[in-house]
Amino acid sequence: MSAPDTAGALDGVIVLDLGQIYAGPYCTHLLRAMGATVIKIEPFGGEPIRWRSAGDVAGAAFLMLNAGKQGLRLDLKKPEGRELLLELARTADVLVENFADGVMERLDLGWDTLHTVAPRLVLASGRAFGDHPAAAGLRGMDVTVQAIAGVVTTTGPADGPPSKAGPAVVDFATGTHLAAAVLAALYQRERTGRGQHVEVAMQDAILPALTSNIAGYLEADGDFPERTGNRHGGLAVCPYNIYPALDGWIAILCLRPRHWTALCDLMDRPDLARDPALASPAGRVRDMDRIDDDVTRWTEQATTAWLFGRLQEADIPAAPVRSLGEVITDPILRDRGMLTEVGDGDRAATVLGSPVRMSASRPRPAAPAPLLGEDSADVLRERLGLTDADLDRLRRDEVI
Amino acid sequence: MSAPDTAGALDGVIVLDLGQIYAGPYCTHLLRAMGATVIKIEPFGGEPIRWRSAGDVAGAAFLMLNAGKQGLRLDLKKPEGRELLLELARTADVLVENFADGVMERLDLGWDTLHTVAPRLVLASGRAFGDHPAAAGLRGMDVTVQAIAGVVTTTGPADGPPSKAGPAVVDFATGTHLAAAVLAALYQRERTGRGQHVEVAMQDAILPALTSNIAGYLEADGDFPERTGNRHGGLAVCPYNIYPALDGWIAILCLRPRHWTALCDLMDRPDLARDPALASPAGRVRDMDRIDDDVTRWTEQATTAWLFGRLQEADIPAAPVRSLGEVITDPILRDRGMLTEVGDGDRAATVLGSPVRMSASRPRPAAPAPLLGEDSADVLRERLGLTDADLDRLRRDEVI
Rounded CA gap, A255 and A272, in Å? Predict the structure, then answer.
């Protein structure tokens, strides 16, 4: 892609971030990378993942996700704190929150209130199951939604217990959809001049990722294994597995006929390539166990590096299973700025980049996450015109 | 959320969809639900997942993801097919593709060409590792990127082999980020009047979901288990696990101190609530094995329904592990339109809804996925003014 030569896509867009843990903060992380100014608003104790469980040191997850945001400490339970939020909302474009159901209403900061006070504001809400009578009061966190929405039952060995996905796939799917929702609402506002309320439910956000699994289930009319181990979720592609190597594991799949014939060549198994029972995708699926055994006999005699090299040359989709240590030092991820070191001394931290690359939107430079309330005075002075005396009083009253 | 009372956010936006399998088609699925008109362009054989492996019947995954799109069959390798695509690009707003590296350039449809011909067009590209010299020619599919980017090493039992996540989390993370990228580019175009090239790499798109795992690794300076089974990815929260019940499994986590004391009450274990060693989050993390054993002794004597009811009443985050069959008949997902039945007879299909809810954007009604080339004539007549004679000739020359 050509070098960015203009400003950011969201230059001038002001985002109030009441997000916590992953979904909300990741949404605003994406918006910030596109050029938005993000004001992270936290209660006096900081948001739930600000501190490590061991004490008052900032947690690495918090630092990764909140880089470059401004930090405002604000007690929304105090009338004056709520009033300040509404004043900020009047001057802002977007407010992002992923509180539990009903929290915004209890703070008297529901959509009707916000829309009346700030008609151009886009309110973005991350929820567990969304606005639905049967979901009222139902809590959701990444792992519980993984369980209830089908991620856990489809993950793990076919003959063993169910497993969660290691990464927080539900929280991040929610945050990403929420960013798309905000952007669609900003685009629509260009025509209507008005904001709207956008909502993403965690359960909805992860469901589409189960398309293979659901399709397999529907095609087999329910006569279908819940978990398929490392095989294709719909049991519709073979070879498709993670095979043992001398020094680790390697994922290999043959989506197209030419991948299968190339793999037979590599394995020096013309008998398989010629076997009429294995000539069609459906035939290979029927003989899955035999094929996986044959591929395993080949992979287990070689290193992942050797296998990966040969498979790449043959243009067969494959990759070694890398460790976390290998991932976070990967030169491609590093060069693309997906993980960067910023700050000095106490403020030194590893921060995330953005997966969204835009040829005409300059990415915002990385900067450390804010200390709790670090920018409170600056934000209120610049955005609401508060004086030093106002700020002193708000501090004394423990509003900021 | 109040009832939608206006048009769609993307009304009037025309999207050309060269997407295949999941990432590209899911991106355009999201854009269609927001009001865009999506023209799905397929080669003569159909896109890779159009047909079931068993024959020429449309696959359920294809039907789920391509509902309500228009179907155009077009041979881009023929000069006239390419020319028609460029003419369509002149009248369109967005072109989405997730081909392997270099395919668009080989078709002479690279960014420079498209931008010259159609300066307002946004080109959205899904890639495996993105534009990087070391990634040139590297293939990526969902499971291989899960392997190389850290999903597989972090999924599965702590003492067992690595596992992929059951759902296609990489493909869908890519598609969702790509939709956000398109929307940001459309928003920026309101100011600049010009399109741009946006890109999302699969490896980048899934990395943020590993925030917990990477943070745990960084905080422990690398002295950290790759996989934590069903425990917290950063081993920073306890209780946090999927516990056995009489009739299945239940996920429970205690993020806040009050969750822990409420769980001790439910289990009728005042000794645990009073134990000073377990009073702090860090203390509970240190005694993880003991706590998990105690919780298991409680859960394994009850049904998931009973446990879920008690835990909900006590406001402790929890959920049963549901089967795929339970998920796809879930009343909340059904009422929210996340899965709907559309069409009659041969065209009957289950289709996905969109996780993005917008109070002022009416969702597009569901409709069956197009047959291969179903709308070829209509699209070319309406958008490019082709005559019946033109269309006959193009059919005869196997361009459409």
Answer: 16
A14-208+330-396: what fold? Rossmann fold (3.40.50)
Q: How far is A132 from chain B (nearest CA, A)?
A: 7
Each residue's pLDDT tens digit, A132-186: 999 888 889 999 999 999 999 999 998 889 999 999 999 999 999 999 999 999 9
Report the C-alpha gap between A281 and B320 in whole angstroms.
36
Q: pLDDT 10s digit of each residue in chain B, 400 long? A: 444 455 899 999 999 999 999 999 999 999 999 999 999 999 999 999 998 766 678 899 999 999 999 999 999 999 999 999 999 999 999 999 999 999 999 999 999 999 999 999 999 999 999 989 998 888 899 999 999 999 999 999 988 899 999 999 999 999 999 999 999 999 999 999 999 999 999 999 999 999 999 999 999 888 888 899 999 887 888 999 999 999 999 999 998 889 999 999 999 999 999 999 999 988 999 999 999 999 999 999 999 999 999 999 999 999 999 999 999 999 999 999 999 999 999 899 999 999 999 999 988 888 999 999 999 999 999 999 999 999 999 999 999 9
Which of A23, A347, A15 lies closest to A170 in space, CA to CA? A23
Q: Report the DSSP beta bridge partners of residue B336.
A: none
Query: Would residue A375 show up in a list of annotated catalytic residues for this protein?
Result: no
What is the Rg, in whole angstroms, of the alpha carbon atoms belonging to chain A?
25
DSSP element (H, E) containing B259: helix B257-266
Which chain A positions have a beta carbon within 8 Å of B210's beta carbon? 166-167, 324, 327
Nearest chain B Cα distance for residue A40, angstroms: 19
Q: Which of B108, B38, B4 has its CA nearest to residue B363? A: B4
pTM over 0.95: yes
Please answer whether residues B23 and B126 qualify as being in contact, where contact means their C-beta atoms are separated by less than 8 angstroms.
Answer: yes
Q: Which residues of A touch B300 (CB under 8 A)?
A: none
- Class in CATH terms, A230-321: alpha beta
Beta-strand runs (E) in chain A? 14-17, 37-42, 70-73, 94-97, 122-127, 197-201, 240-245, 248-253, 318-320, 339-342, 349-352, 357-358
Q: Are strands A357-358 and B248-253 parallel, antiparallel or unpaired?
A: unpaired
For residue B239, cis peptide bond before it (omega within 30 degrees of 0)? yes
Q: Enter the tokens of residue B238.
A: 């306890």
Q: Is B263 exposed, middle or buried (0-12, 13-18, 19+ CB in 10 A)?
A: buried
Q: In what order do the strands lie in the sheet with B357-358?
A: A70-73, A37-42, A14-17, A94-97, A122-127, A197-201, B357-358
Residue with tokens 């206006």: B6
Neighboring chain B residues of A233 at a CB cutoff of 8 Å: 166-168
Residue A131, both tokens: 């606005």
Alpha-carbon gap: B232 to the closest alpha carbon of chain A (Å) = 8
Average the pLDDT over A96-106 and give the result. 95
A 70-109 residues with CB < 8 A to B: none
Helix (H, G, I), strand (E, B) or coil at B122: strand
pLDDT band of A56, cuts 50, 70, 90? confident
Closest Cα in chain A to B147:
A321
B347-378 core/surface letters (b: 16 or more CB in 10 A; e: else): eebbbbbbbbbbbbbbbbebebbbebbbbbbe
Task: Give the Cα separation of A338 and B210 in Å (integer).
Answer: 12
Spatial separation of the C-alpha atoms in residues B52 and B72, rounded to whole Å: 20
Domain ranges of chain A: 14-208+330-396, 230-321
For chain B positions 370-399, those within 8 Å of chain A (CB to CB) are: none
ipTM of the complex: 0.96
A210:B324 CB<8 A: yes
Q: What is the number of other CB atoms lying within 10 angstroms of the CB of residue B293?
A: 10
Residue of A26, A52, A217 lying closest to B324 (CB–CB): A217
